[in-house]
């Protein structure tokens, strides 16, 4: 599906979210990646085969560092 060089990660790889954006609709809360993954703003995903990946936001309490 991906025509980029080097090719983007496939939908079944662990780094699938690193694929390039094909469509971005922040007003609707989703983006389509070139590997066919629908990425939602809550970090949930819908894979091309219909598999659902639950949201996986970092747990609260993490440190936030500001740039000086």
From TrEMBL:
Name listed for the protein in its UniProt record: DUF5999 family protein
InterPro entries (UniProt xref): DUF5999
Lineage: Bacteria, Bacillati, Actinomycetota, Actinomycetes, Kitasatosporales
Organism per entry: Streptomyces mutomycini
Pfam families found in the cross-reference section: DUF5999
């Amino acid at each position: 599906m991906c025509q980029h060089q080097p090719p983007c990660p496939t939908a079944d790889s662990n780094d699938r979210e690193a694929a390039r954006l094909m469509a971005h609709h922040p007003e609707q809360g989703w983006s389509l990646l070139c590997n066919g993954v629908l990425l939602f703003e809550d970090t949930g995903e819908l894979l091309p085969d219909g598999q659902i990946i639950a949201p996986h936001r970092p747990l609260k309490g993490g440190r936030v560092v500001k740039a000086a």
